[in-house]
């Protein structure tokens, strides 16, 4: 079973890297990009087969390590 | 007087920090990150600058979950002193010993230069040797020193006199020009600038020495 965790900066937290990417896109001629937010995707290979239990455990992983919940939010997909 | 200097894979200011402690009469012991306890009789723990675990995931994130950090958190919970410099400050916020977060510098560049800091409070065992309001020069060397806190936390830090240092000329976008903060009991200090790189005239200045002699003074009278 796979779990995919998406980690993004919370809304309202300035993302200087996203801003730099936005400027670079502008300089390549891609007009109309009003905002860029950069995040992380973390893939986990899990041994178990119980999706519900996996989600609970991955949520704990996010809270304890994978995301810094002071500034980041996360979303979990179990597949 | 004894200091433990924690060494993570990727630490690179650990020896400088040990030299600074020794210059203040505090005997430093280097402690590897895989240790699960601090040596006996440790009065203060130093978390050094560097790039622990290659800054993987987030700066300081993996180090904050290493075996030795559980012992460091227990030491702080007992009222022990902890000094986190640069990457050490990042470890302190990742471990929850200090609030807030440190993000990528607003200008996205790694910054390495001496900066002028305002010592906001002399009410701590780290800053007692300075006058509140005094300007000092310490070097900075970081990519992720942009301190972030929500308005409620900022108000609490200000109200409780827990901002230890502010930048005179904000280099990295830190909210409130914050360069260093204290824990609630004022026994844990985290700061991005490097006082241990300003203890000898050969380094271009000695403004950082007063921090280490204040620690030694506080430990002596304790």
Structure, described:
Chain A has helices at residues 16-27, 51-66; strands at 2-9, 40-45, 72-78. With 79 residues, chain A is α+β, with helices and mostly antiparallel strands. A three-stranded antiparallel β-sheet of chain A has the order 2-1-3, with helices on one face. Chain A is elongated. Chain B is built from six helices and eleven strands. Chain B has a nine-stranded mixed β-sheet with strand order 2-1-3-4-11-10-9-6-7, sandwiched between helices. In chain B, strands 5-8 form a two-stranded antiparallel ribbon. The mean pLDDT of chain B is 97. Classes of the chains: A alpha+beta (79), B alpha/beta (222). At the A-B interface, α1 and α2 of A face loops of B. Chain B: Part of the FGAM synthase complex composed of 1 PurL, 1 PurQ and 2 PurS subunits.
- Integer average pLDDT of chain B: 97
- Specify which chain pair forms the largest interface: A-B, 11 and 18 residues
What would you call the shape of chain B?
Answer: globular
Specify Rg of chain B, calculated over alpha carbons.
16 Å
Mean pLDDT of chain A: 94
CATH class of chain B: Alpha Beta
GO cellular component, one term (chain A): cytoplasm
Subunit structure (chain A): Part of the FGAM synthase complex composed of 1 PurL, 1 PurQ and 2 PurS subunits.
GO molecular function, one term (chain A): phosphoribosylformylglycinamidine synthase activity
Pathway (chain A): Purine metabolism; IMP biosynthesis via de novo pathway; 5-amino-1-(5-phospho-D-ribosyl)imidazole from N(2)-formyl-N(1)-(5-phospho-D-ribosyl)glycinamide: step 1/2
